[in-house]
Amino acid sequence: MGSEAPLDFAARLLSKVQHIGLLATVRMGIRKALRPFRSRRHRAHVLRQPYRIARGELAAALGVTPEDLPAVVGRIRGSLAQRLPVSPESVAAIRALYEQQAPAELEATVESADRICGHVFDLLGSGPVALGTTIDWHRDFKSGYRWNPDQCFLDVAHGHEVGVDIKVPWELSRGHHLVLLAQTALLTGAPTYARECIAQLTGWIEANPTGCGVNWACPMDVAIRAVNWLWSLSLLAESPLMTEVWLTEVLASLVAHGRFLMDNLEVRDDGVTTNHYLADLVGLLYLGLCLKEVHDAEGWKAFALRELVREMDRQVLADGAHYESSLSYHRLVTEMFLSSAVLCRCHGLELPPTFHDRLEKMCEFVQGYTKPNGLAPQIGDGDNGRLHILTGYGHADVRDHRHLLALGAVLFDRPDWWSASGPSWVEGLWFGGLRCAAWRREPVSAQSGSRAFPEAGLYILRGRADYALLNCNPLGSRGVGTHKHNDLLAVEMHLGGEDILVDSGCFLYTSDPQSYNRFRSTLYHSTVRVDQAEQNRLIPGKFFCLHPDSRLHRIQWDIGGPVEQAAADHDGYERFSHPVRHRRELRADWLNGSWRVTDHLFSPMSGSRPHRLEWTLTFAPHCSLQPAENGWSVVTPRQRLWLDGPRLSANGTPVAIAPRLDEESVAEQYGRARRAHFLRWSWEGSLPVEGVFTIVSLE
Predict the structure, then answer these.
(1) Which of 164, 190, 531, 548 has the greatest number of beta carbons closer than 10 A?
(2) How many domains does the structure of the chain reveal?
(3) What is the mean pLDDT of residues 37-47?
């Protein structure tokens, strides 16, 4: 069996130097050493100058006297309707398109809004939960735990009790549902939805003093909340239910949001930035452009624009993939960049061509990885995170990323993306896409053909209703692996229009550390584990990071003929005293309708010692497996497939194995898991070893 050196401080420090450089590592060490002093100073600043903005302070922020404040607020109200991509003049046309071309979406939107009016929420896998007459914004309604609403945001605890999920109040307070209510008010003309939106905003402000309680503990959520409030205000700006007195309170809170964000930007000690920092910037950009009358606004806008362009270069790879090794977070980041770009265009601000070029590639990446059923593979972490939800709230599958194609179609004039966006095309209407509606009457070819994204490490073989993915996704975030799973060389297969082999997804974060680590483990993915070790070691007590043990080598990509193939190997197990390398080949035979996976496990050194090898195949929940001679029968609701093998040979000699069928879980979204079959087999002995299995359709 292979053995490895313990993951000590020296190994982690060396890894940092290799990935971020010596100077950045030294800077990180200094920041960590100064953290106690910096924390005390920041706390003193927060307590001395709370972020809350009173009426007089709002007047000062607007540069007027308190007596002139109502008139200025009235002018802001009149301007808000024109400061987002959708204008009051377009509402009638949008309503008509919903009624004529998307009646099912209109009906589902109204039903979702009605549930929100009844204070029934389904968040993060909770199922529908009635929150009562008065919403408790500080409560995790899944566990019943409640945070102290008077506690300074710097002292709010999370991950301190198993089963308690801080993301629940955060998600509720992001305010996605407020935009839904505002949209529904415009689509139906019924005042009920505007009244409920205004009432919930009022209740939230009263229950959440600025800088106090759980809903100020994460700046990213503060930023997303500001964006959704601004969308809601813009959509309801002409409603008679919105009064200047009420709007004054909301504007004061929004100014506090902006000042809070500037004071609490999320940058790690090692200088690595993530989707959190990007969300901070997008919040500031929205505040800076939509509240231009505020003295702080120009500074917010200038800072956000400068940093937004910088983060596009830092966080997005050359082929358009976000660098945190997660497709769920790629969706979130793409949405933030797209929304910002459309907002800038609305305000006559031009972002650099290089920014738009990279953003267009982000959308091409979305189109490339989307499966024939319109859903995305669940590679890496996923928490259902969104900036704003302008279609599908409460009823769309969270794995459907095609709304990004609708936004991209509007921004880049891409009829092919508009066609490929499926039912999410209506989202583009809210971003100035009325002109695009005519495109749907013209047939446009959808995504087809195999695609490789080398920087992202995704190699996708595609033909008609079939799709297979070889995951060579590297450890991202400059070696931190913030949302990476141990899924190297895992395969995903979607055959005959159905998911067959899937990624296990991500169930929970800090509320269940054991589940979090299990779902990101090597044994929970359709790949090979060696000597019961992870491809990349987990760092004890740490979430959202992996030690960078693995690198990819010898990537092969052969497409264009009746047989196409993707292959690669990783060296994650070469850290052992008796090293092991794993190579996998994924082969599609289009003429015979078969998919073959071949594994080679070998040692770069002579005199290999025995190793324990464990294979896993993660099947979709709807797949039923039955053993048969020389293979397995796979039955789905729509088809029958045959899994030939698995077959194993050591040093060229066939060896007997005993596959077993385990019942495990697949998380189809954060907080919600379904039972599924995992086919596993193992073997122990000397290398080299070759393993083969083939999946063919029996239809």
Answers:
(1) 548
(2) 3
(3) 86
